[in-house]
Amino acid sequence: MNFTEQELLSLLASFIWPLIRISSMFISIPVFSVKALPAKIRMIAAMLITLVIVPVLPQTPTVAIFSYQGFLVTAQQVVIGLSTGFVLQMVFAVMLVAGQAIAYSMGLGFASMVDPATGIQVPVIAQVFVISSSLMFLAVNGHLLVIEMLTASFTTLPIGIIGFSLNDLWSIIAWSSQMFSAGVLLSMPLMAALLFVNISFGVAARAAPQLQIFSVGFPITIMLGMVLIWVSLANTLEGFSEVLTSGFQLISQLLKV
Fold first, then answer.
1. Strands (DSSP E) found in 124-184
2. Fewer CB within a 10 Å sphere, N or C end of the chain?
3. How far apart are the first and last CA of the chain?
4. Model confidence over 48-58: pLDDT tens digits?
């Protein structure tokens, strides 16, 4: 059996371009993009998924892979894959913003650690929220849903020079406001409760300065904050599920699935 050079390049393109889209998603998707997960594991997973779906994908465009048009097609696949994971990164950032706001209200802003996903210092309370949301994301098979949507996008958004439009990119930018509004909304009940506690300490210190109320107010605020987090964690995760659903709807809109 003999193959021409054009046929070999066509077979290579039919595998490389789907692989680029899927591997780009694994670079930016939460949970799987952490530094603790070796890049080899992500690459193997992307290759296995590509091998499974390539036989059922629509025919790739007749564009030379090593050409200017081929470069544009490759860039579109990278943008589609990265954008899919980036939307979910913004969803998880909601919990990060909520955790930071609660930590600062409790007086635990100084207790920070390195977030393995972003590589920056974040309060420990925020890490607790991010870990809880990550477990919830895996429990509801969110990662499988993303892979399914990205696989379906090869039909609704086929491989080609034309991919995302400017309106699609602007919709991602507009949705980024959810990071701050939803994060503050999730943290508002705890922040309000801790604010009333601090106000009561201030009134007590003003009424009886000799009590030195602030020497015991700091540990009481931390203990009360821990109790409130434990009590309200279920409601917080329920609010996160609504934000996650909104994120999936945005991904569905972008991928037209």
1. none
2. N
3. 39
4. 988 888 888 77
